[in-house]
UniProtKB/TrEMBL annotation:
Signal peptide: none annotated. It comes from the Bacteria. Residues 17-95 form the Carboxymuconolactone decarboxylase-like domain. This is Carboxymuconolactone decarboxylase family protein. It comes from Streptomyces corynorhini. One of its GO terms (molecular function) is peroxiredoxin activity.
Length: 157
């Protein structure tokens, strides 16, 4: 598959991606646990079908010590016994936050309340920003058909 746009040579993309990389770095240093960040990034990218982000976040999570069992079960987190209650709450919020068009009320109060029992206000802010950020980046990659498979761990750090 060939990309429709070459973000690496486009001057506008260079300006925009500088800020996107900065957002990603800021999230990495937020108080939201890094394993939760990678699981959420994977789930949002699975829902959206973003191969580039799936490649990146699976490799980053594995390099950080995440097990292949947990990585392989992210798509079926409801039925899997390998996730904590906090991770489940984050994954549920990620799903509803990604599928806002599927629900008349967007993210439900019960989903929000479950997440709020596990994360403080700063972590919830980080989680909401991460979900929104991943949806934006997924769309940039999907619309321009960015190919996946070449990501190297730490490439954007």
């Amino acid at each position: 598959m060939d990309a429709r746009l070459d973000y690496s040579t486009d001057p506008t993309a260079a300006k925009v991606f500088k800020h996107l990389v900065a957002v990603g770095r800021t999230l990495k240093t937020s108080p939201l646990p890094s394993v939760t960040q990678e699981l959420v990034a994977l789930r949002v990218s699975q829902i959206n079908g973003c191969a580039v982000c799936l490649d990146m976040h699976a490799k980053e999570a594995a390099a950080a010590g995440e097990t292949s069992v947990r990585l392989n079960l992210v798509a079926a987190w409801r039925e899997a016994t390998v996730f904590t209650d906090a991770e489940r709450a984050a994954l549920e919020l990620a799903e509803q936050g990604t599928r806002v068009a599927d629900a008349a009320d967007g993210v439900g109060d019960e989903v929000w309340a479950r997440a709020a029992t596990h994360y403080d206000a700063e972590q919830l802010t980080s989680l909401v920003v991460l979900i929104s950020f991943m949806n934006a980046v997924n769309r940039l990659n999907i619309i321009a058909r960015q190919p996946a498979g070449d990501y190297e761990v730490g490439q954007f750090h």
